[in-house]
Amino acid sequence: MSDTETRPLRFAPHLERLPPSAIREICRLVAQPDLRSLAGGWPDPAVFPTDDVRRILDEDLPRHGHQALQYGVTEGLIELREILAREAAREGLRLTVDHLMLTHGSQQAMDLTAAAFLDPGDVAIVGCPTYMGGTGAFATVGAEVVGVPVDAEGIDPDALHRRLRTLAARRRPARVVYVIPNFQNPDGSVLPLERRRALVELADRYGFVILEDDPYGALRYDGAPLPSLAALDTAGRVILARSFSKTISPGLRMAWVAAAPPVIRQLGVIKQYRDSCSGNLAQQVVLGFFRRGLFEPYLERLRVHYRAKRDRMLEALDRHFPRTARWNRATGGFFVWITLPDDLDGEALLQEALRRKVAFVPGRPFHCDGSGRNTIRLSFSQSDDASIDAAVADLGAALRDLAARPRPSLAPVPGTKPKTRTAAKRGPRRAAGPARKPKTRPGRKPAGRRR
Ligand SMILES: Cc1ncc(COP(=O)(O)O)c(C=O)c1O
User: Fold this and answer.
1) Do 284 and 331 fall into the same domain?
2) Is residue 3 part of a domain?
3) I want to staple 134 with a disulfide (CB 3.0 to 4.6 A). Which of 178, 251, 278, 308 is the partner?
């Protein structure tokens, strides 16, 4: 082992662009027993379907154990893929088993997409901000990750178009664009129908692939669902990834990817060399849910459960947060995204909050260009009502304390900018979701307040 002291290990140079995930780092802190965490976007273990899983295993293992405990085909159990194709038809997605592959979490769908479409130095475009799992998957294969502004309605197609034109003029065409159209992690934005159409048209015109990552779409608390980009795509350029991590359980590591059959074939060949196949036991559990008709009623229970938590957090923010901050309404998913006044730093607020035993995720790591220092992400998914109230109250107090303190201006810190670029400065945010009823408070102009 001491060899490395004299001859240092050489990691692939492009991995220098790969920062450790800020969420994972903070989740390490969260292990402290007395810390109240609004950090991780993990599902609430209180609603894990433990009894259903036990029943499925008890009943199905004796009959299907020979298959469940064996290697399986790379694409996944055919019966499960048939069911997923039938389910997808209900939302206008025309799929056969050849359009579908089970993956080890949707993180694997991102990794496979990166491996299939990106060479080192190729350009992948992500929203700014976006989930760092996507950014990281592209960075691990040595792609250049370019950010495009996201506003309250998700990725901005006009800014994307401008960026695509510039890249094409420099003979650096974008190969992959990563989009989370429903309740994006971290900012909860939902891409409207016109933007979905615009993105699909741009993909066709500029010849890139859209990776549509949709782990939260089933957890909608307000409004009606919108068609997926995959349902709008006629050119076979969209790869849709859906996950059971935020619904049944992330411990199963079960997700699926839908794409044109040649794309699935290519992803399948790569998967063969990555992990041979997804776990058959976990697939049997998911299959057991669908065979018994348990999935849809369970989803309905989850929506009720998380909607109540979302409401609790919004009420607590209204009560305890200063009016200088603004936040989204979170019409689905797990997150409330808060924009602090320009001169406040989310990372400084985290230090202040940790002293009060509250954790959250600062917004900057979700921005591939190092911007977003005055943003933070709160998750309401795991905390109970009392903890949400207390943690938000303490965070509000931490914010007031920080705001009252003299502080340096938020100029970029030299040397901290990652080697990724953004297309343009982020445009102004508008409140996500339906407009909130303005509050009448003396001396305030509610119309100008944005969340
Ligand atoms: C937007 C987004 N995509 C993908 C994932 C990873 O999901 P999975 O557990 O299916 O790999 C997450 C998890 O937090 C996420 O927020």
Assistant:
1) no
2) no
3) 178
* Residue 154, ligand 1, Cβ within 6 A: no
Pocket test for ligand 1, best of 24, 44, 107 (most atoms within 8 A of CB): 107
Domain end call among 239, 270, 292: 292
In a domain, 335, yes or no: yes
Of 413, 353, 356, nearest in space to 377 by CA: 353
Q: What gap in Å lies between CA 199 and CA 207, rounded to an integer? A: 11
Mean pLDDT of the chain: 89
Task: Indicate the residue type of 378.
Answer: L
The domain containing residue 32 runs over which residues?
A: 12-47+298-405+413-438
Does ligand 1 come within 6 angstroms of the Cβ of 248?
no
User: Which numbered atom of ligand 1 lies nearest the CA of 180?
Assistant: 1
Residues 264, 385, single domain; the answer is no
Query: CA-CA distance, 72 to 278, in Å (whole number)?
Result: 8
Indicate if ligand 1 lies below 6 Å from the C-beta of 182: no
- Residue 91: give its domain's CATH number: 3.40.640.10
Collapsing DSSP to helix, strand or coil, 387 comes out as helix
Domain final residue pick, 261, 292, 323: 292
Residues in the chain: 451
User: String of b and e for 260-299 (b: at least 16 CB within 10 Å)?
Assistant: beebbebbbebbeeeeebbbbbbbbbbbbbbbeebbeebe
Once rounded to an integer, what is the mean pLDDT over residues 8-16? 83
At 310, list the tokens. 């979302």
In a domain, 445, yes or no: no
Number of separate domains in the chain: 2
CA of 240 to the centre of ligand 1 (A): 13
Residues 218 and 257 in one domain: yes
> Does residue 156 sit in the same domain as residue 271?
yes
Amino acid at 278: S
Quick check: is 377 in a domain? yes
The CATH number that applies at residue 388 is 3.90.1150.10
Kindly report, residue by residue over 319-375, the tens digit of the pLDDT: 999 999 999 999 999 999 999 999 999 999 999 999 999 999 999 999 999 999 999
Let me know whether 225 and 311 are in one domain. Answer: no
Tokens 């085909």, residue? 73
43 within ligand 1 shell (Cβ under 6 A): no
| CA atoms of 328 and 125, how far apart (whole Å) | 24
Gap from CA of 332 to ligand 1 centroid (Å): 15
> If you search the block for the tokens 């999935």, which residue do you land on?
295
At 12 the pLDDT is 85
395-418 confidence digits (pLDDT tens) = 999 999 999 987 766 555 444 444
Residue 444 in this model has a pLDDT that exceeds 50: no
For residue 238, what are the β-bridge partners?
210
